[in-house]
Amino acid sequence: MKNKNRTPLELYIHIPFCVQKCQYCDFLSGPSDQETRDRYIKALRAEIQAVQGVEAYEIVSVFIGGGTPSVLKAEAIASIMETIQKKFCFSPDAEITIESNPGTVDLAKLNAYRETGINRLSLGLQSTDSKELRMLGRIHTYEEFLQSYQWAREAGFQNINIDLMFAIPGQTGEAWRAHLRQVAELKPEHISAYSLIIEEGTPFAECELDLPDEDTEYQMYEDTAGILAEYGYQQYEISNYAKDGYACRHNIGYWKRTEYLGLGLGASSLYGENRFSNTRDMQEYLGFSGNTERIRKDVLKLSLKDQIEEFMYLGLRMTEGISEIDFEQNFGQKLENIYGSVLQKYKETGFLEKTGTNWRFTRKGIHVSNHILAELLLDEE
Ligand code: SF4
């Protein structure tokens, strides 16, 4: 039951620590010592306590992400949970997710998460092939993942996501299909499957990698949806698949532009009418987290044009697409008056389709979605 008098708000809590850096990763994360972790938790709690204007909101979801939140001791996660529970009003059915990696969890830690009210676990697996895992720089084997997954079920997690990655160097289409089936057989409620992107500044960007060619990657993506459908997973976003009723509410809220507040180093927010991101400088964060004005950077009050563009490019990521009715309700103007010609153009080329009052990408369109989304940027008035 949602409280009708309060505005829904999502919380994102960033834990920027990992055991070691993976070869492909450009997230704000890395190894750390215990003293830094302790100081960070203290700073994070100070930031949470200092947030203003929370009376108007009700928390509908929390996502504790990273990094690897599970590198922290269970007591640290419990103290963060206690601080947010004291500070904010929670919806009784709030979805509360923590990201964890095999090699950093055990049964006691997972039991402790459940006791704090965390009800969804996202496990970073990436590959079922331990050789691929080593090459990616992951700290765990497939067998360690299986043990973590079993512990998670034992601890009572009934909503588990598994993160997978395809188009890994040296990977064939056949190998990917086999990995996918292996994971689907475990029956997690949710699977995220992303293709490897080589990001600048990562060790992989410096290497000569034997990456699958474009056609193979295209086929891997198509096979993902096909194989997961056989196991009862529905694709609800470009890279996300879920059993009925288990689509990630936190992510859907983000794509539908529910307000969210990011807490912690580098975390981004859409709070009130503003978008902003916290400082990415650890020393500044540790020193000034209790002064939210000081740590919030790039504060941008969204114009109507910004809001319309966001509505389009976030909403079109979802397989249900965007609704003409929602557009009109949000912006007081008809979708076709603003985007009629571009939507029509891509409908004729078979990249977009209209189902009822919704516009969405076709399968063919998903593969060129970045190019099409770029055309949805509006001219300055
Ligand atoms: S565990 Fe995740 S966040 Fe940490 S380095 Fe690897 S990919 Fe990046």
From TrEMBL:
InterPro entries attached to this UniProt entry: Aldolase_TIM (IPR013785), Coproporphyrinogen-III_oxidase (IPR034505), Elp3/MiaA/NifB-like_rSAM (IPR006638), HemN_C (IPR010723), HemW-like (IPR004559), rSAM (IPR007197), rSAM_sf (IPR058240)
Record's subcellular location: Cytoplasm
Pfam families: HemN_C, Radical_SAM
One annotated GO molecular function: 4 iron, 4 sulfur cluster binding
Domain Radical SAM core: residue ranges: 3-234
Keywords: 4Fe-4S, Chaperone, Cytoplasm, Heme, Iron, Iron-sulfur, Metal-binding, Oxidoreductase, S-adenosyl-L-methionine
Function text: Probably acts as a heme chaperone, transferring heme to an unknown acceptor. Binds one molecule of heme per monomer, possibly covalently. Binds 1 [4Fe-4S] cluster. The cluster is coordinated with 3 cysteines and an exchangeable S-adenosyl-L-methionine.
Similarity comment: family membership: Belongs to the anaerobic coproporphyrinogen-III oxidase family. HemW subfamily.
PANTHER family to which the protein is assigned, alphabetical: COPROPORPHYRINIGEN III OXIDASE (PTHR13932), RADICAL S-ADENOSYL METHIONINE DOMAIN-CONTAINING PROTEIN 1, MITOCHONDRIAL (PTHR13932:SF5)
Protein name: Heme chaperone HemW
